[in-house]
Amino acid sequence: MRHFLVMTAFAVVAAVVFGTVAKDTNRDRLVYGLKVFLEFLLIGLVLSWILYFLPF
Fold first, then answer.
1. What predicted TM-score, i.e. pTM, was given to this entire model?
2. Pick the residue with more confidence: 32 or 56?
3. For the CA atoms of the chain, what is the radius of gyration?
4. How far is the C-alpha of 38 from the C-alpha of 44, rounded, in Å?
């Protein structure tokens, strides 16, 4: 559970930074920030699911 919380915190910070510097209007910043946040979470969950089945 701790890894998921750290991943979520990183996604929030990255989304805020990317949303702030990438777009011009507030609405565009919010939409882009939410998109980046969801993409970080989705990619992280997919990668963790794939890596779970690899034997190390």
1. 0.84
2. 32
3. 14
4. 10
Q: Are 14 and 36 a contacting pair, CB within 8 Å? A: yes
For residue range 3-35, what is the model confidence (pLDDT) as tens digits?
A: 899 999 999 999 999 999 988 899 999 999 999
Contact 7, 41 (CB under 8 A): yes
From CA 38, how far away is CA 50, in angstroms rounded?
18
> Does residue 15 contact residue 37 with C-beta atoms inside 8 Å?
yes
Residue 54 phi/psi, 5-degree rounding, is -80, 130
CA distance 50 to 30: 30
Q: Contact, 12 vs 41, CB < 8 A?
A: no
